[in-house]
Amino acid sequence: MNSPFEISPDSCFSGGVRAPVIHSQSTVPARWSPGVDVTVTHALVFALLSEHLTMEKVLLEHKSLMKKRFECIFEGVEKKNNKTLLNKVYTDLYITEGESEEVNGEHEVWQLEAASRKPTARDGTAINCNDIFKPLPGQEEHIRVVLTKGIAGIGKTVSVQKFILDWADGSANQDVDFIFALPFRELNLVKSRRYSLLGLLLEFHPELRGLGDSRMWNGRKTVFLFDGLDESRLKMDFGKTRLADAGEVSSVDALVANLIEGKLLPSAFIWVTSRPAAASQIPSRYVDQLTEVRGFSVPQREEYFRKKVRDGAQAGRIISHIKVSRSLHIMCHIPVFCWISATVLQKMLAEEDDREIPKTLTEMYAHFLVIQTNIRSQKYHGESEADREKLLCSHRDVLLKLAELAFLHLENGNLMFYEEDLRECGIDVDEASVYSGMCTEIFREELVFFQRKVYCFVHLSIQEFLAAVYVFHCYVSRSMAALRSFLKGKSRASPGNIPLDVLLSSAVNKASESSNGHLDLFLRFLHGISLEANQRLLLGLLKQTKNDPSSVKKTIQNLKEMQRKNISPERCINLFHCLIEMNDSSVHDEIQAFLKSERGSVKLLSPAHCSALAYMLLMSEEPLEELDLRRYKTSDEGRRRLLPAVRYCRTARIGGCRLTEKMCETVAWALRAASSHLRELDLSDSVLLDSGVRMLTSSLMSPSCKLETLRLSHCRLTEKGCAALTPALCSAGSPVRTLDLSGNDLQDPGVEALSGGLKSPECKLEALRWSSGCASLASALTSNPSHLRELDLSYNHLGDQGVGLLSGYACRLALDPDTAYGELSLCREKRKATFASVPDWSPDRPERFLLCPQVLCGDGLTGRAYWEVEWTGTRVIIGGAYKGLSRKGAADVAGLGATENSWDLECSARSGYVAWHHEKRTEVPARGGLSGRVGVFLDWSAGTLSFYTVSLETVTHLHTFRATFAEPVYPGFWVSPESSVSLQHLT
Question: Which residue spans adopt a coiled-coil conformation according to this UniProt entry (predicted)?
Answer without folding.
Answer: none
